[in-house]
Design brief:
Blueprint: E1 3-21, E2 27-47, E3 51-55, H1 66-78, E4 83-89, H2 100-115, H3 122-129, H4 136-141, E5 144-149, E6 153-156, E7 164-169, H5 176-182, H6 194-202, H7 206-212, E8 214-215, H8 218-224, H9 227-237, E9 242-245, E10 252-256, H10 259-272, E11 275-280
Parallel strand pairs: 1-8, 3-4
Antiparallel strand pairs: 1-2, 2-4, 2-5, 5-6, 7-10, 7-11, 9-10
Helix pairs in contact: 1-2, 2-3, 6-7
Amino acid sequence: MNQITLEAPAKINLYLDVLGKRPDGYHDLKMIMQTVSLYDEIRLKKIHTGIELTVDASIPTGEKNTAYKAAKLMIDTFKIKSGVGIQIKKSIPIGAGLAGGSADAAAVIKGMNELFDLCQNQEHLAQLGKKIGADVPFCVTSGTAIAEGIGEVITPLDKFVEVNIVMVKPDFSASTAYVFGKYIKDDYGVKPDIEKLINSMKNHDIKDVGKCLYNALETVTAIEYPVINEIKANFLKLGAEGSLMSGSGSTVYGIFENTEKAIFAYNQMEQKYKSTFFVKTI
């Protein structure tokens, strides 16, 4: 095998709680993360030497790029003698709270494992991904999971698939560092019960899931960007069972029990917001 093509799916947060600040400056989190059917396409091929990265978007292609970092990590860790060419076709919006960069890095890790016959198991690949970023371990495992620590401690949950999600990425990107910097614990009211959310997901009770969605960072971002609450209100008017910002923003999604309602909402939101997506949980 000389080349391989992979899909790198986006994620949303169904639950995000900030437990406290760590001595290293990061925050301990407790999240429920879910992959959805919006993908970047990653093509890898063996080359003679080095790392050659091309991306069809205005993002760095050098050592600051997460996919580049992942390729270098794999080459250094496993003493790979040849190089790798990486082509990324972006569909996941940049700076959207959807882990697009982490998804690309995870795809490179998994793809190079296969391309170079490294025979590493998923758990080891996920732990390697932690060196690139906190969301990369989840993106390696994907699916439905609780993520703890800074996001790198992954506990799989029962599958929560084929759920209708409409996502809107407003015309701005939220700074993760800024949002966490402004967050003050216990400032934002009573939070839903995560165990009730997990049970509702297990039972595929979309109405109850919608009631239990929670993101402790949402209010911080919404103070700076009131459009967050505007989008949420529009989703609820259009029949969403619940609506939430993903990650530190700026994407907001609505969760729908009914496919027809989701498609109607997508068509309405697309007229108002340029970056609108209708996806399913996978």
